[in-house]
Design brief:
The chain is an alpha/beta fold. The protein has a single domain, classed as Luciferase-like domain (TIM Barrel), CATH 3.20.20. The chain is built from 13 helices and 11 strands. The longest helix has 20 residues. 46% of the residues are buried. Bound molecules: flavin mononucleotide.
Length: 382
């Protein structure tokens, strides 16, 4: 067995399987404005030097995950939210080469990337990172993007059936030691082959963010992580949602991690944090872009009903519908404790200003998380 394969045990190379009770990552730094739909000063413009700085800082501090969002055009409005984006596989390859510890995700629209291409791109990144790659599968929720590709827009649940076949074929390519044929509903392929195999055996981890019944079934049956929008920001409702997802997976003999998206506003005082949140959401929020996004979400996705969507308008501007962590460092860590208790395995964070606020997160919040027993002490890399 060569050196790379020695690291192939789950957890051996990929920090997604590490033992921190609350794992951490960063989401959407490959997109302009990240996850924040605001015209507030200093919002994330998105360029490579800043992206590199944030990734390296997170990696050195022991954050487990760096995750890009797959987006092909913006949502309009004064921000044209997410208009500038780096493509996710090539982003992951570049970030993978710059980092040593964090899991590096690509996010893949399954109907827009052929499984033979996806399997090989994924393996390439798995080798670049020495077994730190992971794949986030998305089925599509933005019809305009599919029109760019001339790709068929399947009905909602069919998209997940397609994803199951797509992933099955990718995993066969990752593992088959001989050429094989594939006769599926969508893919009829001859003499399939892919080499090298992934560093991680049997497969790199797979995540999915489906929220509808079909999406949740897909995540529970086929994936290792489910990336969830907590439909209710009350913790009892959140716990019920997470318990249901984990038991759905256990019913088919699987364990899934549940990750959520959080948006963070940390200041010296709780009031200071709340005031800034109010400023960038209510005074500087981009109403046009968020309404475009919610229309797409409401009409083309079945995750949230209209009333909940309305309640989420604020949270979509603040951080793409994520869970709010707002206050001074102690308040944020106390809130984290509640998330640990309801069974959240990991939080993917977005901020208005990634670079400055990640620095603050590392210096002021992570030590408190260690004190609270949420994470183990970490010696930063030199
Ligand atoms: C935190 C999070 C990140 C997501 N990232 C993407 C993405 O990068 N690209 C995309 O097209 N959809 C993305 N989605 C949309 C989901 O894949 C999914 O379509 C959406 O949650 C609706 O669920 P449903 O398809 O089960 O109705 C994301 C969803 C969540 C909750």
């Amino acid at each position: 067995m060569d050196g790379a394969r020695d690291r192939s045990k789950r957890g051996g190379s990929n920090p997604l399987y590490g033992d921190n009770r609350m794992k951490l990552g960063i989401i959407a730094m490959n997109c302009s404005h990240g996850s924040t739909i605001t015209t507030a000063e200093g919002a994330w413009a998105m360029n490579w030097p800043d992206t590199r700085d944030v990734a390296v800082m997170a990696d050195k501090a022991g954050l487990e995950v760096l995750l890009p969002v797959a987006r092909w055009k913006g949502y309009g409005g004064p921000t044209n939210f997410n208009n500038r984006t780096f493509e996710t596989y090539t982003w992951a390859a570049g970030i993978g080469a710059l980092t040593d510890r964090s899991a590096v995700f690509s996010t893949s629209h399954v109907p827009l990337v052929h499984p033979v291409t996806a399997a090989k791109q994924a393996v390439t990144i798995d080798h670049i990172t020495g077994g730190r790659f992971a794949l986030n599968i998305v089925c599509g929720w933005f019809k305009n993007e599919f029109e760019m590709f001339g790709a068929p827009w399947m009905n909602h649940d069919e998209r997940y059936e397609y994803a199951a076949e797509w992933l099955d074929l990718v995993r066969k390519l990752w593992s088959a030691e001989e050429e094989f044929d594939y006769d599926g509903r969508w893919f009829t392929c001859r003499n399939l082959w892919s080499e090298p195999k992934p560093v991680q055996r049997p497969f790199p981890p797979v995540m999915n963010a489906g929220g509808s019944p079909a999406g949740q079934r897909f995540a529970a049956t086929h994936c290792d992580m489910n990336f969830v929008i907590l439909k209710q920001h009350d913790l009892e409702g959140g716990k019920a949602q997470i318990d249901a997802l984990k038991s759905m997976a256990r019913a088919v003999g699987r364990e899934v991690q549940v990750w959520i998206h959080v948006y963070v506003v940390c200041r010296d005082t709780d009031k200071g944090a709340r005031d800034y949140l109010d400023y960038y959401v209510r005074q500087k929020g981009d109403r046009v872009a968020v309404d475009n996004l919610l229309t797409i979400f409401g009409m083309q996705s079945e995750t949230l009903d209209a009333k909940v969507l309305d309640e989420f308008r604020f949270h979509f501007i603040a951080g793409h519908g994520g869970y709010p962590l707002v206050g001074r460092p102690e308040t944020i860590v106390a809130e984290m404790d509640k998330l640990v208790k309801i069974g959240v395995d990991g939080c993917l964070i977005s901020w208005v200003r990634y670079k400055e606020e990640l620095r603050q997160w590392i210096d002021e919040i992570m030590p408190l998380m260690v004190q609270a027993g949420q994470r183990r002490p970490f010696t930063p890399a030199v």
